Amino acid sequence: MEDLQRRADTLIEALPYIQQWAGKTIVVKYGGAAMTDPQMQDNVAQDLVLLRYVGINVVVVHGGGQRITEMMKRLGIEPKFAGGLRVTDAETMEIAQMVLVGDVNQQLVSLLNAAGGRAVGLSGKDANMIISRKKESSEGDLGFVGEIVSIDTEVIHVLTEAGFVPVISSIGGDAEGQSYNINADTVAGQLAGELQAVKLVTLSDVAGLLEDPDDPTTLISKLTVSEAKVLIADGNVAEGMIPKLESCIQAVAGGVERAHIIDGCTAHALLMELFTDAGIGTMISTE
Amino acid sequence: MEDLQRRADTLIEALPYIQQWAGKTIVVKYGGAAMTDPQMQDNVAQDLVLLRYVGINVVVVHGGGQRITEMMKRLGIEPKFAGGLRVTDAETMEIAQMVLVGDVNQQLVSLLNAAGGRAVGLSGKDANMIISRKKESSEGDLGFVGEIVSIDTEVIHVLTEAGFVPVISSIGGDAEGQSYNINADTVAGQLAGELQAVKLVTLSDVAGLLEDPDDPTTLISKLTVSEAKVLIADGNVAEGMIPKLESCIQAVAGGVERAHIIDGCTAHALLMELFTDAGIGTMISTE
Amino acid sequence: MEDLQRRADTLIEALPYIQQWAGKTIVVKYGGAAMTDPQMQDNVAQDLVLLRYVGINVVVVHGGGQRITEMMKRLGIEPKFAGGLRVTDAETMEIAQMVLVGDVNQQLVSLLNAAGGRAVGLSGKDANMIISRKKESSEGDLGFVGEIVSIDTEVIHVLTEAGFVPVISSIGGDAEGQSYNINADTVAGQLAGELQAVKLVTLSDVAGLLEDPDDPTTLISKLTVSEAKVLIADGNVAEGMIPKLESCIQAVAGGVERAHIIDGCTAHALLMELFTDAGIGTMISTE
Amino acid sequence: MEDLQRRADTLIEALPYIQQWAGKTIVVKYGGAAMTDPQMQDNVAQDLVLLRYVGINVVVVHGGGQRITEMMKRLGIEPKFAGGLRVTDAETMEIAQMVLVGDVNQQLVSLLNAAGGRAVGLSGKDANMIISRKKESSEGDLGFVGEIVSIDTEVIHVLTEAGFVPVISSIGGDAEGQSYNINADTVAGQLAGELQAVKLVTLSDVAGLLEDPDDPTTLISKLTVSEAKVLIADGNVAEGMIPKLESCIQAVAGGVERAHIIDGCTAHALLMELFTDAGIGTMISTE
Amino acid sequence: MEDLQRRADTLIEALPYIQQWAGKTIVVKYGGAAMTDPQMQDNVAQDLVLLRYVGINVVVVHGGGQRITEMMKRLGIEPKFAGGLRVTDAETMEIAQMVLVGDVNQQLVSLLNAAGGRAVGLSGKDANMIISRKKESSEGDLGFVGEIVSIDTEVIHVLTEAGFVPVISSIGGDAEGQSYNINADTVAGQLAGELQAVKLVTLSDVAGLLEDPDDPTTLISKLTVSEAKVLIADGNVAEGMIPKLESCIQAVAGGVERAHIIDGCTAHALLMELFTDAGIGTMISTE
Amino acid sequence: MEDLQRRADTLIEALPYIQQWAGKTIVVKYGGAAMTDPQMQDNVAQDLVLLRYVGINVVVVHGGGQRITEMMKRLGIEPKFAGGLRVTDAETMEIAQMVLVGDVNQQLVSLLNAAGGRAVGLSGKDANMIISRKKESSEGDLGFVGEIVSIDTEVIHVLTEAGFVPVISSIGGDAEGQSYNINADTVAGQLAGELQAVKLVTLSDVAGLLEDPDDPTTLISKLTVSEAKVLIADGNVAEGMIPKLESCIQAVAGGVERAHIIDGCTAHALLMELFTDAGIGTMISTE
């Protein structure tokens, strides 16, 4: 009985936050270890379903580079990278799309549905959602690595209004039907802006942005967009963090109130970020 | 941080229950000490607002006999009772309406709104919601004590669909505009049926129905409608419990799945009833 | 038969006015003797219901100072006034709310419903409609006399769209749930502006604004806002008329086309004002 | 002022009737002298527009045999009749349609619009509303005299929901586009049934059904369907009245509560019928 | 089978054009020989119905001067013209309205419905659609020849949204219900602008605008508004073409993208114009 | 010009069929060579997009066994079959889902979008659309070969009402998120019934059902359900045709009017089937 009381108290403590976010849109970039560890997967899925049930329009974006690499190796193809980007020839593109849309995406859909949600998987090619084109690079020809030309959010609105949770693979297409491999952080950042989301939450493998990447106690809790840009320009951001931080900058520039990088491997990190004052991880905002 | 984790875990434990009740209607009969003790009031208000936010259509019904008696005494009028019912002459009816609609109801509305809800106070006379007539009694003429002729739920639907929480005083009216004092348990029971609610939850001052009214360890957790009727017929129900139990019987007869009598003075009893398997208090159902 | 013909002719004469007002919103400030005399009550109720049936969105605002004073005296409390305003300590506030919301309001609801309408009583605390704060006064501390901070008309729109007639007590609340006693003319004037009403009609005990308050033949039929302000500044308005006239000024400043002060004791004065060219009473407009 | 009072009283007397009919559909068969006399026309138009403004869905059906005959004579064609029906060869059909749809109908539309309504003229061919076929007759070949096969009320619903008053010429069509001349009483009677109207009101040149056609004091106020059938079978109905009475019988058989034959030349006869208890003219109902 | 294949290929060739026009509004001015020759009538009707089925909001405007003249002659009245406009006395106006609304319009409705459409005939007087006034003329008093004061498109939107095809006679009315005879090209041109149509297509008896009116090989395919004005000013447009060209100029000035004059006697000219890149006839656009 | 005329004539010939199918739902089972040959793909995509534009709700279901086999071979895994069904161990299931959802489905989406449509790819796991379970087989344990437990069509309705074309992979899921490989013909047949489609059209590699499988001239044009069952029972259906024919039988049993097996390699076979009286291929109906 005492335990029941404590539980009820906890639910009540969440009430002000539920009131704050109800009816708003939140984009979650799902990735890293949180996407591969079964226990972490369940935790994230429960968080996302709970958010949907308390009235938040949840939109999930995912990548899956590691799974693409695995499948390429199983097929005897050696992945190539240039400047941190996957060189994507036609065969690689075919494999990337197959793995992201047919495997990673469907696993997330399964997880969310098993947790009681009603998820619908989408690629950026569905409903012509993400129109993209070849990304020019100083690293040479990267093949079908793409950048975003425009985003049409109609199918997302149609699905969220009907209570579904869209789960989006970071694949774009052009008018001729050619697929492009787009960085998932970039998709999440730009989509959050297009949807006028109140938050972009990026799940990463670390606690957030660290002043000293090797020292987890040096977490930067709060960062303005201009401070973030200086950090990147000065080379003070770990390489893997750069696209995440740039995605946050882009989101805030696009009108999103706050962007967050949090540790997806902490159980229920999403709830902790949304349902406490302090928040967790690193928060990027205009000022 | 550990504390945050525990909180998040608790929210997640509520998820299956939220899924179960979302979109359903629950009628709460509010009364007893839970309605007078400030701390208990806040607890109940928070519970009701939380239920609304997780998608439950909450409808509150209240009485307030004690407050009517207090006001009568302040006005130098001696309350009279016959067979447990307040003999309600014209002056008493005027005071009862004034106290219930203008005082008790508005206090509940204030509580719910201060807790973040959007409550709207109603009497059964508003929108011709509760059509009533004089209740004939073997105890003689009880004046304007009323019974329900019919309930028109349109204004409740209009308000709940717009996200409001209707708070209803147990006053009815007839075609000529005469007010009637109706037992609040009766209103709650019949209204729950008309609304096809999934639950009627009655807040009382005790833990539920007790086999031995003097021994709180003899709580009856579960009761069928026919068992409940036998208990009443055999005189084994404490007098104050009879209208509450009859209200539960009426609700279940009207199609409500489950009716509950719980202790409104236990902090967050409503949440504990709805968000745990075991439930608390006494549950009445068809079988 | 001839009589029938005359009746039909009269209905037809109303047609151009019905066309003019159909679909528009009209706020009626109900008060004075029209609110206490049973015959006058019936007349006003019929007028209001007829207006609703010919397609006008009718919103009623009422006060009830006299009834509050009566109840205070019954309770042995001496009312105190300062600068024409009721000094409202906590006990007075409790009584005022009880009388206005639980008694006066419910009587109006009964009257309208008996006349065939579908009225719903509201206080400014319902649905957080009227957010208010303590009114500072040069007369010293007036207690819980309030002024309006903001008005949220959502619940009014929800109810009028469903065909109901909202009847509003001039009580406001703040974020903590404290009630405030607000002048009903002020509520009516500001609400008319927020609702973008075409008319505010104030029912008073006299024929309108008189040049010589003692001479009913000196009715001022038409007044611009600036003329009205000069009249007040010059001290040429009877004290009881000042809040009514200020309410009209406020309404017109808020965008209401025309504000009227008419004699609520004339049978069917509302219809006469709306359904004749000449109108009755005093009309205040921009120019 | 006294006059104003009397007018207001009259409006209020109409209130119970307005409540009774608001939101219901009433079909008016317009014909006879009421359709040709300018003063009568204005009266009827005002009545119809008033009914629309107090929330009644008004649908008007008209014929115009006299005008067809006039035009035929102007064109040097001799009208022929058989058994009371116009023998309608191709040329006659062309003229009938031209006169009804292009002249009579448009005049009614003009009248209603000048009275403040928003009328839309329709023939039964518009939107395939009245599908008809050649009427077989014991009188021999009547040409394009038609009977009704089916009625599609969609266009009527679309227009009345948008606040328009449909004015319908009694012309039908078949799948090949051939026009048919249909008795307007028949169209009104059957259409009233299809629309589930509460009333069919037929405007005629006499006060109603008379026991002695030559004695206006012998008005039959009330008639059951079976009594009406007996009257016709016994030859006790004036010839011109037979189609009107049959139309009423058909309407009531189709589910219309009450059908009326009233004197369209009495000023505002429609209002008098609808807005008094006694009603005027002859009323036909099930029992 | 080969033939089937060719048919399917043709349908597929239309696909890009269907995509281009779906959901858009197109006003078609119907007139000339295409309106009198039965084979041509069927062709045009099929075209219009097909356009409606592939998602285009089709609105048809027609005149019918020749039919008016015929009827006047049958009635022994000599038509008079001044400056190319019909001098329209009261009797002529009556005949014009009767012929246009009751005859020509209903024939078009029949044609469209026989082709599988759901057409609804309207005059500009219906629903007060076309408010007009007497047109002053340098040619003297032309009687009831009218010009357009304003157009209210509500009834057109109500009907097209419900899937109907409005067919409009070029008759206008004023507030008193007086009818006016308006040039149908003028109605079509102005209506296209009010509806923000993407196209006005005028069906004429010739292939389009010819440099040399006697030489059909001198078709002008494309014309800017300013070029068109110069052509008229220089007297290089055949008299019958002037109102058509002015109507196109007016439409384009009103915001219509493109206006076309095409040969209504060419089978399926409408489809050919809409469903080919080259188009047919003369096209007028801003530049 | 003559060519334009012929094209227009062809469009007009399609009009009656467009009228017949507009607003109806048609399920297309896409498979065989039509799904692999680029030219055939384009043809089918154009047909599907055209159908959508003329108002038909098109739903596409696809399998892709050949592509699964190819990918398994690339991964060095030997496909196993039992009784015509793919033995589907966990690894095979993963590959099947990846190929169907991530590759075949996305190619169809690209094709439809490149043809001007707005396609959205779905698996049966999205939105819990196809709930399935392990299919018991007399051939032994087939692994994750599934059968359908239930279909929830909500996401399909949401998407078709918004104008999208759902493209569905024949993958189902259970409550725990396990994927099942379901025969695409079975999915199409059952889904057509659930959607109350008017037609199921199965694209195959042959002209339809042949009396003599080796003789294309022995096409059976029309077949009742009972005749079809006899054919199967008697072993007179080619093995590859059996699931297609059973799917048609199931659809018709589920309420679909007509089911068709046509040659997907004939250019625009879908249009030819829908837009001609004769139809092509084999048609199965109740009688």
What is the CATH architecture annotation of chain A?
3-Layer(aba) Sandwich
Oligomer: homohexamer
Specify the number of helices of chain A.
9
In whole angstroms, the N-to-C terminal distance of chain A is: 46 Å
Largest interface: A-F, 39 and 39 residues
What report would you give on this structure?
Six copies of one chain form a homohexamer. Chain A has 287 residues and is an alpha/beta fold. Helices cover 41% and strands 22% of the residues of chain A. In chain A, 57% of the residues are buried. The model of chain A has no long low-confidence stretch (mean pLDDT 94). Chains in contact: A-B, A-F, B-C, C-D, D-E, E-F. The A-F interface holds A 74-75, 94, 97-103, 105-106, 109-111, 113-114, 118-123, 125-128, 154-155, 158-159, 162, 164, 171, 173, 175-177, 179 and F 74-75, 94, 97-103, 105-106, 109-111, 113-114, 118-123, 125-128, 154-155, 158-159, 162, 164, 171, 173, 175-177, 179.
Fold topology:
Six copies of one chain form a homohexamer.
Chain A: H1 2-21, E1 25-30, H2 38-53, E2 57-62, H3 65-74, E3 81-82, E4 85-86, H4 90-114, E5 119-123, E6 130-134, E7 146-151, H5 154-161, E8 165-169, E9 171-173, E10 179-181, H6 184-194, E11 199-204, E12 222-224, H7 225-233, H8 242-253, E13 258-263, H9 269-274, E14 282-285
